[in-house]
Design brief:
The protein is α/β, with parallel strands linked by helices and 293 residues long. The protein has twelve helices and 13 strands. Strands 3-2-1-4-5-7-11 form a seven-stranded parallel β-sheet, with helices on both faces. A two-stranded parallel ribbon has the order 6-13.
């Protein structure tokens, strides 16, 4: 298939690009400048330099593709506008074609919940409340096959934003890392290569549509994660913090999602797609793998 991909130089998108190429798909990577074009070309993609806010230009490129995957995100206040712009272009290009359009989301949209499924009610905190209306537009569109992959915390290959937050935790007077809150909350995690595999499986399965919750079945506590991160950075250990310290350090909105307690079996992806995450856990990666300094 000829697949259009946004975010191909980012953490998740670069792994999606690798997985697609390894399975024989042609990839046109939408990039913002010539430097990024050179990077994706070196990895086997056809670059297309385009402003993702330019709806006619993006739609024109999408019409030449058999499907699209949207993983690009600036990770700031402009994220909602970017997602809306790309969805608008996809709706223009794919209306009536039945072509697949996939985009990434995050498990935080469900809020605190230790038994998350695709049918769970949304309880999005302010940081991510903008996501759900855009995703509903994708899934309610007629004439294209829309899917949203709702991912847990992505990690692996020494990268990822939240692993970086844990590795960069402040320290107490004896050098221990300070946990986010008490550390008793659980996080849903998934290796970025396993996440990329899930994207490809949804893309290739003509019956796959709707929400897919993606998590590897590991639900480590923040205490377990921070203790493992301490090993990675050579700290003597980790100690509990407090909700107040987390909010002061990270801001109210960001702290709210990191203090939430979440878990999921991700049964739909396993049962419908035959998806079986196979990479090491984040705790193992911190203690023995790509994050060790």
């Amino acid at each position: 298939m000829k697949i259009a991909l946004t975010g191909a130089t980012g953490f998740v998108g670069s792994h999606v690009l690798t997985d697609l190429r390894e399975h024989g798909h042609e990839v046109t990577a939408f990039v913002r400048d010539d430097a990024q074009a050179d990077r994706v070309a070196a990895r086997g993609a056809t670059p297309a330099v385009v402003d993702l806010y330019d709806r006619p230009a993006v739609a024109g490129l999408l019409r030449d593709a058999d499907g699209a995957i949207h993983t690009a995100s600036p990770g700031d206040a402009t994220s909602a506008g970017l997602d809306s712009a790309v969805v608008d272009a996809a709706l223009d290009a794919f209306a009536g074609t039945g072509k697949p359009y996939l985009q990434i989301s995050g498990l935080w949209v469900y809020g605190p919940n230790t038994a998350i499924t695709e049918d769970s009610p949304f309880n999005a905190p302010p940081l991510v409340a903008w996501k759900t209306p855009i995703e509903r537009r994708v899934l309610s569109a007629t004439g294209m096959r829309g899917a949203v992959l709702v991912s847990g915390t992505a990690y692996g290959d020494g990268g990822g934003g939240l692993p970086g937050v844990l590795l960069g935790s402040p320290r107490d007077d004896t050098g221990n890392l300070i946990m986010i809150g008490t550390g008793r909350q659980h996080w849903v995690t998934v290796h970025v290569a396993d996440l990329a595999d899930a994207f490809r499986r949804v893309l290739e399965d003509d019956s796959a549509r709707g929400y897919y919750v993606i998590g590897n079945g590991e639900h480590p506590t923040v205490a377990e994660l921070t203790e493992a991160a301490a090993v990675a950075v050579g700290a003597p250990g980790a100690v509990p913090g407090s909700d107040a310290e987390a909010r002061a350090r990270l801001g109210d909105y960001f702290a709210e999602v990191l203090l939430g307690d979440q878990a999921t079996a991700a049964a739909k992806a396993r049962n419908e797609l035959g998806w079986h995450p196979a990479r090491p856990s984040l705790v193992s990666e911190f203690r023995h793998g790509s994050y060790r300094r």
